[in-house]
Amino acid sequence: MEWEDGLKPLARKVLYTCSYIPEEIIVAAGMSPERFFGDPQGSAPETPLHPRTCGYAKSLLAGALVHPPPGTAGIVVANSCDAMRRLYDLWQAYVGQPAALFLEVPKKQDADSITFFAAELRRLAVRLEKDLGGEPVTRASLQEAVACSNRARRLVREVLDLQRDPGSDVGAAEVFELCLLGVTAGPSELCRKAAALLPTLRSRARRAARPRLLLTGGILHQANLLRFIEELGAHVVVVDTCQGLRHYAGLVDESQQDLMLALARRYLLKPACARMEGLEAWLRHLEELARSCGVDGVVCTTVKFCDPFAYNVPLLTERFSLIRIPFLFIENDYRWADEGQIRTSVEAFLETID
Amino acid sequence: MFKAMLEAMEAQTAATLSEAPNARALWYHEWAKLFLRAYRPGETVVYTSAYAFPLEILAALDAVPFDFELAGAMIATTPAGVPTMAEAENRGYSPEICSFHRTALGASFAGHFPRPDLLLTTSYYCDGKPKTNEILAHIRQKEAILLYVPHEVTCDSVRYVERQLRRIAARIAEAARRKFDEDRLKEALRSSNRARLSHLKLLELLKNRPAPWGGSQLISFSINGLLFTGSKTKEALHDALVAELEERIQLGNLRPEAHRLYWLAWLPTYPSGIFDALREQAVSVPVCETFRVYWEEMNEERPFEALALRCLRNPFVGPASRRIDGLAELIEEFAIDGAILFATPACRHSNNFQRLLKDALASFRTPFLVLDVDIADPRGYSPERTRTQLEAFIEMLKPTSWGGS
Fold this sequence. Notes:
The structure holds two protein chains of two kinds. By secondary structure, chain A is of the alpha/beta class. Chain A is 50% helix and 14% strand. Chain A has helices at 23-28, 55-66, 82-95, 111-130, 139-164, 172-185, 187-202, 224-231, 245-248, 259-269, 279-292, 307-322, 339-353; strands at residues 3-4, 8-9, 12-16, 31-35, 72-78, 99-103, 212-217, 235-240, 297-303, 327-332. In chain A, α4 crosses α10 (259-269), α5 (139-164) runs antiparallel to α6 and α5 runs parallel beside α7 (187-202). Chain A starts with a strand and ends with a helix. Chain B is an alpha/beta fold. Chain B is built from 17 helices and eight strands. Chain B has helices at 2-19, 23-37, 56-60, 68-76, 81-89, 99-109, 128-140, 155-176, 182-206, 215-224, 232-251, 274-280, 303-312, 327-333, 348-351, 354-363, 383-397; strands at residues 45-48, 64-67, 118-122, 144-147, 259-264, 283-288, 338-342, 368-371. In chain B, the strands form two sheets. Chain B has a four-stranded parallel beta sheet, sandwiched between helices. A four-stranded parallel beta sheet of chain B has the order 6-5-7-8, sandwiched between helices. Chain B is globular, with a radius of gyration of 21 Å. The termini of chain B are far apart. The chains are: A alpha/beta, B alpha/beta. Chains A and B meet through α3, α4 and α12 of A and α7, α8, α15 and α16 of B.
């Protein structure tokens, strides 16, 4: 075991690929969870993945093949979608180390699925110990990890409320940077950073109202889109993406005797990604979110070839058209190579709102 | 339009069958009859995925399975295919999503499909199918049900799938206003077990050189023949095929055969010329991935558990390596000279298996071709390019003057 300052064990890193993977279990195993973004800005070498596959999956494999992440004990890949389950197969065959663990995540939210998912989480805890050299996950270590992640969620919730406040000068880009820090540096670091930042954010002067936007979609690994929306004079009041609101919404019930079941419940019942069953509920959730935040427009961005979103987008477009909220769909390549073109689309969209 | 197609198919095949027994005519006839039942008032119509959902449950409840992908595929065999897909594209469905699903959505928007009572699908093979199921349910304002089948076979996953199947059976019974009778389900499993044995018999006959059957008909039957799972029709179809194949072998009524191929995944629904090109070169496809028997005989006394196990052991669930398991033995048993993977662009799970398959086949020294051809959308298809690809591949199968291949 490596030691830092002779006091605390230096946790080994465990990468993960989806916000449905509970970071709490990794922390409870004495390891450090880090959302893996792969090699988004890299030269995108050929990978064993098919070219018509989402850029995120391709970037993960490219990242592992070209720049294997140092100090990593392993990676947890969730059965999020077709691309991810094949990524796991290809990782096993062509990457090998760091070792990959697979986590089954049902697409359903009923009681049976929650029970089954809890059993899968128990298996994950055992595999972190047996296969990646983690510590045994005990009730006490899990309790502590859950408490820490809940604290982080509460703090982020406060920041998100400030961002949502009309007249707020708390920008979406800086808040999203904080959210990204949470998924890369872990919940403890996020707590430290958010606690330090909150007084400053609360004391910010108010500013004139700007067009209010909801940003929804899949994975967003950087704040560039938010930054240029702000530069164009609009305010993104809520970011409903994998690393945004969906990662931080809802708490794990710490009072539950069975914490794995509590984790399963929180993760399967949090605001859903498009991968989940329940199209009507998903549409209704986004409509309610847009209405409750009083937005003037909605932007949805997903990575090209992300089928779960691609199938949903036409009905989402229709839904916002019915309630007369302007809607813009932006397909990105994960690397954001076509940022200039996207900027032009956003600019044109904001003109329609003005 | 779709109903008229089915009526024409039913009449035409009935005429053929009135002259002499004919397995192919029987298959198309039963197919047309089954889909036409879905338009009949009073029937309980369940949209489903024949190749994935255990249809014994529907058979036990006399519910009519209507497979929207197979129905879409049937439309895509005609010139109406592209305009039907365009119905969906005009509503924002991207050309990057599966053309089967675009056709099914377009046909539903255009009002060609029958009204469903329930829409039922599985989490495998792909992400697009349950999405399409939910969209169709949204259009029809009906309930969509998803059977989630996990990646691994464990005690927990078997129990999880079994519980879902029990609930689904109860829900179909409710929609059908019938009491669920487990004895009828056991009978459906018995029928499936008998059909499994005749299926194995068919596979044995297909090992014959030259092959007595194969190509596009075999691949097509391997998928849409699943519509009859759990019914006497399935047994009758297998029996008719066994009789025909035995007769062909006995009479020597077989096509000349220079090479034998193993076919993976699906096939194009529109006229592609692929199988004509293979036939011209005396290349047969005596076995395909979707015709393999991957499941054991089912325990009829524990029907839900048996069906759950069959779902979980499907080669398209779980690691991609399951699609490679047993391939070396199959290549030897069927005297396979090469393999083709049909790769429709939107099939993410299958296309991302290409590299693993390529490496496995290379280790068996089996030549391999990936056919990048859309399954239902003929726009952009080049028959000449495909023919050239096939000819070059067949050239590789020929023994060289120094004895290698």
